[in-house]
């Protein structure tokens, strides 16, 4: 099983931005924990980070041919990118939306996700563990 992990805008700034919401660990540390968990589960992962909406859409379209599923943290695009929402709706692979912070416990504009209605599920507010939970969800839903 191959899973694409797509980090959206500003995730590359982890460790330097809003530690009260995102903690102090870096993107490299997050990716390392994702790789470690994926290896323990027997999942192959490819990890990407894009600040550009178009790059995210292109990678989602590619995932339809090369991956069995996608974990995506669309960052701020969560709240308004109909283009990313439509790209997810257009592919046949399951997508799990992940957010490091609890988007429902922050500014009111963050509590609405245009992605959630087309995602298989959403994990919000569990920190870096949300990505690991999403990997495990792919295994559990595959089994039954």
From TrEMBL:
It is an enzyme of class 4 (lyase). Its EC number is 4.2.1.10. The keyword Amino-acid biosynthesis applies. The active site is at 22 (proton acceptor), 99 (proton donor). InterPro entries: DHquinase_II, DHquinase_II_CS, DHquinase_II_sf. The record marks 17 as: Transition state stabilizer. GO terms for biological process: amino acid biosynthetic process; aromatic amino acid family biosynthetic process; chorismate biosynthetic process; quinate catabolic process. GO terms for molecular function: 3-dehydroquinate dehydratase activity. Substrate binds at residues 73, 79, 86, 100-101, 110. The keyword Amino-acid biosynthesis applies. Keywords: Amino-acid biosynthesis, Aromatic amino acid biosynthesis, Lyase. It catalyses: 3-dehydroquinate = 3-dehydroshikimate + H2O. CDD domains: DHQase_II (cd00466). Pathway: Metabolic intermediate biosynthesis; chorismate biosynthesis; chorismate from D-erythrose 4-phosphate and phosphoenolpyruvate: step 3/7. Belongs to the type-II 3-dehydroquinase family. Homododecamer. PANTHER family: CATABOLIC 3-DEHYDROQUINASE. Catalyzes a trans-dehydration via an enolate intermediate. This is 3-dehydroquinate dehydratase.
């Amino acid at each position: 099983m191959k899973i694409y992990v797509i980090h959206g805008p500003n995730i590359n700034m982890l460790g330097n931005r809003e530690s009260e919401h995102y903690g102090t660990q870096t993107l490299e540390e997050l990716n390392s924990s994702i790789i470690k968990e994926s290896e323990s589960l027997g999942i192959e992962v490819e990890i990407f980070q894009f600040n550009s909406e178009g790059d995210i859409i292109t990678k989602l379209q590619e995932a339809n041919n090369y991956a069995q599923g996608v974990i995506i943290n669309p960052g701020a695009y969560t709240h308004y990118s109909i283009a990313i929402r439509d790209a997810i709706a257009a592919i046949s692979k399951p997508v799990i939306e992940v957010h490091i912070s609890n988007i429902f416990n922050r500014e009111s504009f963050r509590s609405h996700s245009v992605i959630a209605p087309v995602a298989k599920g959403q994990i919000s507010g569990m920190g870096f563990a949300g990505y690991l939970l999403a990997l495990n969800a792919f295994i559990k839903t595959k089994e039954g």
